[in-house]
Each structure stands twice: as structure tokens, then as C-alpha cells.
Amino acid sequence: MTINPMRKYVRPHGLPHFFCPGCGAGQVLQYFTRAAHELSLNLDNIVAIGGVGCAARIPIYLNVDVLHGVHGRTLAWAMGIKLAKPELKVVVFAGDGDAVSIGGNHFIHAARRNLDVTMIVVNNLNFAMTGGQVAPTTPYSSVTTTTPYGSGEPPFDICRLAETAGATYVARWTPNKPLQAIRSIKTALSHKGFSVVEIVAQCPTHFGRYAIGSGNPADLLKWIDERSITKVQAESLDPSEREGKFVLGEFVNTERPVYRGTTRYEVERAE
Amino acid sequence: MTDTRTESRGRVLTGVHFMLGNYAVAEGALAAGCDFFAGYPITPANEISERMSQRLPEVGGVFVQGEDELASIYALAGASLAGAKAMTATASAGFNYMQEGLGYCYAVEAPVVVVDVQRCRGENFASQADVMQMRWGASGDYEAIVLAPSSVQELFDYAIRAFNLAEKYRSPVIVMSETTLALMRERILIPPADAIPIVNRRKVTQPPSPEFLPYKAEPSGTPDWAPLGSGYNVIYSLNPHDERGRIDWDPNVFEGLYKRITGKIRDNRKDICFTESFHMDDAQIALVTYGSEVRPAIDAAELARDKGIKVGVLKLGTVWPVPEDEIREVAGQVDAIISVEMNMGKYAGEVERVVGGRCRTFRATKNRGLIHSPDEILAVIEEARR
Ligand SMILES: Cc1ncc(C[n+]2csc(CCOP(=O)(O)OP(=O)(O)O)c2C)c(N)n1
Ligand SMILES: [Mg+2]
């Protein structure tokens, strides 16, 4: 019998996972293992971090060192690890709430500092684990369990936020574009600096049922696909036409010095 | 390009100094091997960060000014699990925010040191009102180790003790500072490096394997540490976890974990707790106190003795865990115990619980942004005298 080559990335006795049938988090777990496999990453050198939430459980299933269980502080942990032991590769898996609601401040500061970690944001457009409440990423006017009459808040665009704050690799895909998602995760993992890959993913259990009226994962994936446009298509649209669309592609890929601590070690002085 | 670090002063500034309390606690940390500091500006703790930002690069360490207290305490957790000896410093309002991250450090047994320079809400006056928060400010079950220095010298000495206890028990240790001490300058003696005892956490000895149990902690109650990134593939989760580290929903696992985490401190009270006695040999009244309040308490005991009242002082070096044996012994000796503290009466309840009716109890408590004067304590002594 041949063993699935991805099996070595999964923690022994770690399965079954706790994701709902059709949840996008399982797909993102697979994208990561494929990317790691294609890059021949050394597992012993990786620390995977999850906060709290459904997406935050992805690292629990990976056979690597893991920090888990506190909502929104993933990047703060990552900062300590990277500065104490820069040779480690640190990968954060975060829900949208984890990344840009409770963890929003850490997010923009990690981007500003160009902290050398990869953050994979599973944006399922709501707070899934707590029962489908509105998130800072929920599309305007969507019904959720705390917006029974539709959300009255405009959402964040996570990629634009990352770009503006200084992230040096930024991309967005959906599970409708798995190969592109894997490619971007590979690029992010190979990138030196703060890299953000956002996957706009389906939460059929909550977002699907409340916001689009169907708990069928395929319906929600289709709904996401219908609202997805490419970066090039987006350029020809004015802001009002872009509203409610998911712009897909690679938005930033640059280099600048990575974060090593608050004080510089060498000081250049004008002679 | 010039390297500002070329004039490194080294880790241990052996010699006699006239030093600010905040600098002394930073120097103690450096002498203990601290190589990572993260903090967020707050008065009256700022001089600790400032000193660390200068000194850590000199000794090859890392200084971070976090975007807030949460970033700072979690950076400590990450750095500690990666092997660093990590410290932060804050003051009351910032200490509130750090509770969350402290809870994580207790749960995953990450040794870190936190200096809380207590102040009055929003104002930089003297207070000891955080003494209860230092014990159980975070959610969940755990036992805290909290050390209470009374002088600038002790800020230095207890910082070293704090790191050593943190490493030994894989637990956060809090150094309870106060505006009073932090902003005071006193003469201190820094010993030679080789006279400073250093404890390092025990590392696992067996090689990584799928059978490895990172939270197995027999017999000491403190598990050996597997450094991040060395192939042991440990889960450090806040959630209840079994000996393998996997999140578990079994009540027996919850209970076993909580028993061990509290037990590793409770069962080692004799090793962790320390007190000091002043004029206690023939005392009939004892002042039980901690931190800066020890200073006016000793003065008050001496004033009382001038009046023929036999008063002594029991100084609590550790406030948590409670030095129960030492307090009970004093309660068996004296007629009355007076709890002296700078808050509306917090630790006094703990002292009275331990005394358990063995002698009469009184309180000298106060929260006016001012330390007790010896006369104020003397007034309570007069009241307690029969
Ligand atoms: C400090 C704190 N606040 C609130 C919660 C409750 N909580 C658990 S998961 C979650 C939000 C999850 O949303 P997201 O991060 O988007 O992850 P998802 O479950 O959608 O993948 C919240 C608020 C918590 N665990 N901790
Ligand atoms: Mg979500």
C-alpha cells in the first residue's frame, strides 16, 4: 500500500479533524501541506501558530511545533519566536476575526515592521466558531447571527490593509482557484518578510445558511466565484463597481529589511 | 558605520553603585541571563525599558517595544518557548492587559518574568493595590509566584531569584515593584558574576519520537523542556491538553493537568517561600508586611520598643504562594498580628485566614498614594497593645 505523501505532515493520531463537512479550512490545510511538500520543507524547522477559531485549529493537525489557543495574539507569539530564534520558519493560520478584528493592531504592526513570518488568513466572512456572528470582513448588508437585518458596517479588504501597512508579499485566492492558492502559499513560504495569503473560503454552516440562505458548500463556493474578479478586471472598474467583489491575484511582492528588534544594532552617523 | 555596541559593559556590573530602583531590577535581570525584553511604555516603569534598550544590545539580547502590552507579553511567551530568558515591565494599567498572556504562560508552562510597578489608577503615586491581581488575575487554575522587594538592592536580588524560580518551575514569576521603590535611588552592591547562582530549565534528554510526552512531569511536577524547532513537534495550547500535548475533552485530563500545574507550586512552598524577621525574638506584637511597607514597619517597631512595647516585623519576601508556615509560627508566638499594607485591606484577609484565631489580628491599611508613616503604624500598635 502506498502512503499518501502528505501524511507525514499530519500529526500522528491527529485525525479526524473537527471541521464541518465542506468547510474551507480543510482545503487550506491541504494547500499548505502541498506547498510544504513541493518546497520540501523541513518540518523540524517549522513553528505553526493558530489563535482561536475554526481556522486557528489548522495547525493542530500539522506534525510540527504548534502554539495555539489565544484569540488574536498569533503575530505577537510569532514576533517573540522569530526574534529569539530567527532560523525557525513561522507560519500563522488565522481566521478573519483572529487576524483583523481582535488581532488587527498586531496585524498592521507586523506589516509595518516586516516581521519575517507567513500569515495564511482563512477569511470565511464571519466568526464561525462562535456561531456565525458578523466580522469586520462580512460584506455590507449580509445577514448573520448578530446582524439579523443585514450588516450596517462596511468590511475591511484584508489585502489592501496589509499592503498599506507595509506587508511585502500579499495575495488573495479562493478554493475555486486551488492551484493559484498553493502557488501563492509557496511564494509566501519562500519570501523573506511579512507575507499574507488571504483565502476567501466557504463556511457553509454559518455564512452559507444565514447570509446566502444555503448550507450547501457548493452553493457558497459558486456565490464566492460569481463575486470574484481578477486584479486586471478590477483595474477597469471604479470603486463603486468594485464594492462587494473579491479581487483575486498577487498584489505585492517586494523586499525590504526584516524586523530584528526595536533598537538598531549598528548606527550610521553622518561624519 | 559605527557599532554603538563596541563599548559593551558586560552582563554583570560588579561593584558598588548608587542606582535607581528601575535600573537595579533591569541589572538583576541581565545578571540572571535575561536576553529578551518586550514592553510598552508606562510610567513609572519606563526606566526599565529604557535601560534594557541600551543594555540588551550590549550583551547580544533583543529589545522590543511592542505595539501594546498584549504584544509584549505574548512575544515573551514565544521567545521563552524558543529558549530565551524573557522579561517585561509594566505598571498597574498595563498589568491588567498582560493578564491574558500570563494565563497562556501558566498554561503552557513558559518561564517569563514580569515586573509590575504598582501605581494608583492612572497616577504615579504609591500603592500596593494589585497584590490580589498578581495572584489570580488571569482566568483558569494556576498558582502564582510573586516576589516583593523592599529596597533597590532587593530589586536587583529578587530579579535574579525570579528568573531562577521561573526556570526551575517553568512558570511566570512576578516581581512586585512599587512607585516608591522603582523611583528611589539607593546604594547597591552587585556581586561578581561567579557569585551569582544561575538556574536553567531542564531540557529533555531523549531524542524526538512519536511516543514523546512533552507534558509528562514526574516526579518533580515540572516537565522537561523541548526547545521549539528541535523536532519534538509539541503543541503549546492554552486549552486543556493531555501528556502528549493534544487538546483533550476528558474530565480526568482537565483535573490531572490543573492538579499538576497548581501542585508544582503548592507542593514546593518550602523551596519557593522566604521571609525575614526583624526584632522578632521577644516580640509580643508582630507586623506582617511586604514591599516598601517593610521600611516604615521596622521604624514603627523601633519606636514602639523605645516605649517599651515589644514589636517585631515579619517581612514576606514571597507574597504568593503565602508563606503559611512562617506566619503560623509567628501567630503561635505573639499576642497580636498587625497586617500592614498600602491598599484598602487585601492581603490582610490572607494573613487572618492563616492565623486562624491563634492570636488577635489588626490591620494598618491605607490607600492615599502615600506610604505609611511609622507614626501611623505606631497608632495601630497602641490599639493592639493590651
Ligand atoms: C479573548 C477571546 N474572545 C472571544 C473568544 C470567542 N471566540 C472564539 S472563536 C472567535 C471568532 C472566530 O472567528 P475567526 O477568527 O474569523 O475564525 P473562524 O472560526 O471563523 O475560522 C471568538 C470571538 C475567545 N475565544 N477569546
Ligand atoms: Mg472567520
Assembly state? heterodimer
- Uncertain residue segments of chain A: none
Secondary structure: helix percent of chain B: 25-40%
Distance between the termini of chain A: 70 Å
What number of domains of chain A?
A: 1
Radius of gyration of chain B: 21 Å
β-strand percent of chain A reads: 15-25%
- What do we call the CATH topology of chain A? Rossmann fold
Alpha carbon gyration radius of chain A = 18 Å
| SS class of chain B | alpha/beta
Q: How does the overall form of chain B come out from the CA principal axes? A: globular
For the record, what CATH class of chain A applies?
Alpha Beta
Largest sheet of chain B: 7 strands, mixed
Strand order of the largest sheet of chain B: 4-3-5-6-8-7-14
Distance between the termini of chain B: 74 Å
What's the CATH architecture of the largest domain in chain B?
Answer: 3-Layer(aba) Sandwich
Description of the structure:
The complex is a heterodimer of chains A (271) and B (386). With 271 residues, chain A is an alpha/beta fold. Chain A has one domain (21-255): Rossmann fold (3-Layer(aba) Sandwich). Chain A contains ten helices and nine strands. Chain A is globular, with a radius of gyration of 18 Å. Chain B has two domains: 15-195, Thiamin diphosphate (ThDP)-binding fold, Pyr/PP domains (Rossmann fold), CATH 3.40.50.970; 274-385, Rossmann fold (3-Layer(aba) Sandwich), CATH 3.40.50. In chain B, α3 packs parallel to α4. The chains are: A alpha/beta (271), B alpha/beta (386). At the A-B interface, β2, α2, α4 and β9 of A face β1, α2, β4, α3 and α4 of B. Magnesium ion is lined by residues 95-97, 124, 126-128, 135 of chain A. Thiamine diphosphate is lined by residues 52-55, 71, 95-98, 122, 124, 127-130, 135 of chain A.
Provide a concise account of the structure shown:
The complex is a heterodimer of chains A (271) and B (386). Chain A is an alpha/beta fold and 271 residues long.
Based on the model shown, name its key terms:
heterodimer, A: 271 residues, alpha/beta, Rossmann fold, eight-stranded mixed β-sheet, 10 helices, globular, B: 386 residues, seven-stranded mixed β-sheet, five-stranded mixed β-sheet, 13 helices, 16 strands, 20% strand, binds thiamine diphosphate, binds magnesium ion
